[in-house]
Amino acid sequence: MKLGLIAGNGRFPFLLLDAARAQGFAVTVAAIREETDPEINHRAALDEKITVYWLSLGELSRLIETFHKEGVTLAVMAGQVKHKQIFSSIRPDWRLAKLLMNLRTRNTDMLLGAVAKVLGDEGIELISSTTFLEPLLASEGVMTSREPDEDERKNIEYGLGVARGVAGFDIGQTVVVAAQACVAVEAMEGTDAAIERAGALMRTLDEESGEPASILERRLTVVKVAKPKQDMRFDVPVIGTQTIETMIRAGATCLSVEAERTLLFDRDNLMTRANAASIAIVGVTRGY
After folding, report:
1. Are 1 and 26 in contact (CB under 8 A)?
2. Strand (E) positions, the chain?
3. How far apart are alpha carbons 224 and 138 in whole angstroms?
4. pTM higher than 0.90 for the full model?
5. What is the dihedral of CA 192, 195, 196, 201, to 10 degrees?
6. Distance separating alpha carbons of residues 261 and 143, to the nearest angstrom
7. Which of 31, 47, 249, 251 is the most buried if burial means most Cβ atoms within 10 Å?
8. Are 221 and 152 in contact (CB under 8 A)?
9. Which residues of the chain have pLDDT under 50?
10. Is there a contact between 4 and 74 (Cβ–Cβ < 8 Å)?
């Protein structure tokens, strides 16, 4: 059994690689020069069933040729490819350039959906990125030792409405809320950067005024959702320990994620760190 792995940044590709190998798949990795951790080479050196090819983001034709050469008919995307890369100095090949020119909008869903269609037309089926990692999906309910308090629950309820609206336009999937007011909305910069921006904004309040804190509760609540029609083949919501560390620095005390549609990486360490910092983490369902 052969699997093609289109590897972005972070730990996601490594987790999926391990899970696929555990199920007996030989894996051909298309590592993206602008994104993939070079450690992937070390992993391949230790396992003869892992083959790595390094490609640029712009080389869609070479990606297809590589998978055809290796006999890959089943593929998966894992790991983030920063959306801002479409504005970078990459040079698309003729196939990708044609795809980009024909897009009505260049949001994540439209771009990756078009890539998936091209792969499908070439006999390469792109499957859900959670196929091998279902045990890592967030469960419904409170997952930490501390439950959200009343203010945090109000923030979650408000934030869900805002986040789902933003996600519906494929702008971002995360909002940061304080006292039922939106402090930051994620766009191209990503979840952690949006949280950092919210924390920095709240810190400026005292620095600028020198007055005592407002009577409004300033603790930040982070709300992350899946898109209304989330395509689980790509851009699946992900939370890791880095996000918890970012929340701690920003002064965020509560995290809401969408149950069964959000991957929690390094779950044990994530929960241990959240509990130590008294951060509440809750999984909510789409009907919440």
Report:
1. yes
2. 2-7, 26-32, 50-55, 74-78, 125-126, 141-142, 174-178, 181-185, 220-224, 238-239, 252-258, 263-264, 280-284
3. 12
4. no
5. 160
6. 15
7. 31
8. yes
9. none
10. yes
